[in-house]
Amino acid sequence: MIFIMQYLWLVPLGVFIGAFGTLIGAGGGFMLVPILLLVYPQEQPATLTAISLGVVCFNATSGSISYARMGRVDFRSGLLFLLTGIPGAIAGAYLVHYIPRHTFEVVFGCLMVAAGAFIFFRSYGPHERTRAGQMGFHRELIDAEGHRHEWSYNLAAGMTLSAFVGLASSILGIGGGIIHVPAMVSLLNFPVHFATATSHFILAAMSLAGTIEHIADGTLGRPQAARLVAIGLGAMVGAQIGARLSRRIHGRWIMKSLAVALGLVGVRILVAAAMSR
Predict the structure, then answer these.
(1) What is the pTM of this model?
(2) Domain ranges in the chain?
């Protein structure tokens, strides 16, 4: 009974992480990692990122199915981004073993605060359509409701960005959506709802690659499996909730919510890192 109660509270945690993570296209790892850092202070970063990446994989896969039904996933762009993102994710899963926990916390916290400030203060007005060929790679998609969306972006920049996101996601265990979504909107001209949906599809594959690497090197073994499954099952349910909520929330508020969450998480981690010195 005690064993069950020890992990039961992780299920509703997974539901919350899955719902909010799917809503903003971030996978939820940026919320889960700081919670794991606080709940399991003796664990190494590699162990916590392995659990988080596994949960992101559960969450992103579930959310991607819902977003695909809505016609919001740009599969062509997503597959091209994965050509560089997956190698980056595998490299990050390997490199995280060489990062001390305090250094990990400081880097993680600073990244969260900086990203939150950038996203919050950026203006998110109505999406401006671009002419075909203006930025190289033209996209034109029609969602499940029959609405036509058109944009263009620099494919080389997108693939380079994905390599960095894959690397950072595995090192930090955050899935990479907190970097990918604002960059896809700000730099690659994606409409917000397509950025969150396509990012979720990319996260599902990149987090799976990182998780497999952690299983292969022994970081993600039986002791971590119970935590991963408990949070992951909750995240799958939450992902469906988040995808449904995305129909009713304007893209501007999705980005603002992401910014506030990032800032709060970053400050909390930096405070914890300072107190541990």
Answers:
(1) 0.74
(2) 2-275
